[in-house]
Hints:
The chain is mainly beta. About 10% of the residues lie in helices and about 45% in strands. Keywords: Signal.
Amino acid sequence: MFVSKRWKTTLGAVLALGLLGTAPVQAADPVGVQTTLEGCRKDANFTFPDGGPFICPDADYTTGNLGKTWNELDLVPYRITLQAGNSAPASQMYTLGVVLDNEDAGKPGYDIISAPVLNVGKSSASCAAAQSTPQTPKNPGIGGTDISIYRLITVTQAKNTTCVYDYYGRLALGSHLFPGSSLHANLLAEDLGTGGAGARDVSIPVKEIEPQEISKTMTAHQGAEQTWNISKGTEDSLDFGNVCRSDAPTSLPVQITVTWTKAEVIGGKVAVNIVLNAKNPAARTITVELTDKLYKGSDNTGTLLDTYNEGPFDLAAGFNGMVAEFTVEFDAATAGKVGDWLHNEVSGTYTDKATGIPVPGTTTAVANAQIQQGEVTNASTTIKDVEEIDGMGLMYAVGVPSFGDFLDGYIADTQTDGEVGWQTTGQTDSGSITFDKMVYLDDPKRVTTGMLRDTAYLTASDGFAASTNELQIPIASSVMAKLMIEKSIPNFLDAGEKLEVTFHITRANDGSFSKTKVITFTGGGATTQSVTAWGLVPDTYYVEEVSSVFFAAGSDTGVPVGLADPRDPAEYPNPRTVDLQLEDGIATHCSATVDFQNVPTTEPAKAQVQKTTEPVLENSDDDYYWTFKLYGPDGGLLSMQDVGAGAGPSMFQTAGIDLLLTSEGTYTVVETAKAGWDLVSANPDSPIQDKVCDFVVDYPEDAGKVFSCSFLNRERGKAQVLKTMNGLPDLGSYSFTFVLRQGATTFSVGETLESMSANAGNGGTLVFTQELIPGQTYQICEIMLPGWLSSFGTFVPNAFMPPDGVVINPNIDNSILCGDFEVGPGETKVFNIDNTPPPGGRALTIGFWRNWASCAKSNGKQEPVLDQTLASFAGGGVYIGNLFVDTCQEAVRILSKQDVGSGKQKSSDPAFNMAAQLLAAKLNVQAGAGQCPNAVTAMVAGQAILDGPPPSYAVNFTGMGDYPKKGQFAAEANNLATTLDQYNNNYLCTGP
């Protein structure tokens, strides 16, 4: 077309009305130029090479309708031909607009318009590349379309030349839905108007555009498995019992039932087969990626089972077919069971490799599938039963089964000790079979144990297998032998007299076996009697006659009598051996008899003594041998015997032979005491418990009897102190006093047993001479000076007032620190005690300070610790209130709560009570005792209220006269006295 200057006017009007967005860059209007817009009407089989160029053969270009062969994502070629005639300027620059329909009613048309490119082959040599603006949307669009896209191209052209430019438009994904009948391409003036020489328009029929498509198919099947159970039951055991019975069986029947059950059909996994298809109607290769989502249920509101990403796939031009197939499996609990639905959605996203420009939008496809029943496996089964027996002399036989067959040639009812198998095949339902069996002993008196073992197996047609646990039927036969003991005595019992003879039965191979049998003879009765022990297992037994006890007429108290067998002891020993053992597993000895023939012995009684000690002594110990004296009924000494401690009983002898106790009456055995030992017991002892062994000899009952005495002695213990100072044995010039006490407690001083001092002279080693009784409680006590610490001691004797023992004793001297201990028999208890000198040690009470003074009334020969400590103060004394205490008498009277002038007792006066505790506290600190903030505060406060105002309630304490017993001063003084008393007793501070 020829374009005139009227284009400028039109474009200006458009801009003034605001019909365009951003105004295109202005260039001059074309003059003398014929414009032609053509599009490609390609053959249906024509495709573009991968990567382009996207230009059709020249014959396919037309200014009319582009036909039915263009589809979604095709790059539709367009061509602009510009012919500048002779009337055109020699050279001119002008601008045109290329426009494509982009969107209408929300549906896409073209989504890309490329920059026109000079077709060198079809253009004059002077033609140059056109300048193009970026792709720009126009809203509203051209020709009533909602949105168009366009580019403005600026061309420089000489007269009498032809310039040809090629470009393309991409049919968008979903463009087949564009409303209206056609999609338009326009060549317009620079202002995109249609005025002037008119616009060029080339169209594509919309209804002929084929869409990009994806599709899918899905099937789902759930497999199933028939399950089976197998079990068996029978009796618990087979017991032939006592084979020594005359009616003992030699065979026993048993039944074993094998049961198999067709159990539930168990649903298997759900297999889902998914086939994905894609169709590319475009005339070029398109790349697609697929995202597949599988849901439980009939829509996407169900549980998302999984997401599968497939591709990318390069779809050749015209491709229509499968791009992916896969099968996935799920547990039925996850995906569902037969009859349930699965829902599948796939979406495709496209990549334009040719343009490199993203493709908006996606394509989708859905499919539903109902889970169908798959194959059922293990529908039939084979049942097998295997049994065997073990045990000496045991065999078994199996009767004819009701169905199925024996394996390995076994013949029914044949005795065997080997394996027997049975099998049936093709079982499709539940069932059972009972086997009748017989178990045999190979000898009527066979004693054995064994086991009949049976296991059933189930193997289904597709590999399902099950078996029972091995059924074990214990088999046993036993022997219950009997042993008769026969006893004969002379006829020496008179009417009313009784003799009880006791026998003890033991076994060779069971030390725990013990049976006692008693045969009783009475005066005038039979002189031969027997007793039987039943139910004895096979073994070697020993029968011992252990005692004979005589009961006088009318007496319930028996006395042992001596009886002897007159026969050869080599042939008739006591105990006797009895053989009830098996021979090669056969009970050949079901019973046995032993006889004892006894007569009374005429030998007199004897006596023996046994010594035991705590601790046990060695024969090399000094106190190993102990002397015992045996006195007769007349009080005369019969024998003196030395006995080793722990050596066992020793017979009293005379002239080297055992002493015979020929006289009736009471005998006594007396121990010769040893120093350092306590006689704990003598046995037997008379009712008066005098620790003398007493026994009475009475004939004939005591003939041949040995009387035994035993004595127990316990050695006393000792206590030893190993003293160190600061962990070293060097005690320097110090001396430390230790006291051994008994009965000392926190509310009792106890009894002082011994006192010793540790010093450099004895190297700190003290051995107390006091003998200590094992099991009794003693105390080691150390006398502590103020400011010292000890590694030993847990309490101060008499520190608390009885009876409850919780109130502090105000008069206690807490320099004594004790600890409880006990000794074992013969033990020397060693105490390693370490002392640490001041500072930082224990505080001591007012009771200590007033007693350890040169002017003390206690007269206990204590060192003048009070005097020494007072002298160590600056100025030789210390202030208590306004009283300067610098003499022993002043200090002791203050500590004793007395008027320093008259000596009058002032215990009820709060000022004197607190002054006593304050002086003791200051003495403790001066001596090096440990302090804590509470103690320091109390001492400062105590001095303050005794030193005159301030505070207003303070007094001028001089140690004489009376002071307020009520009011604020009295209350404060009492509180401070309590606190200082706790400090002096070492209860206030966490440390000393």
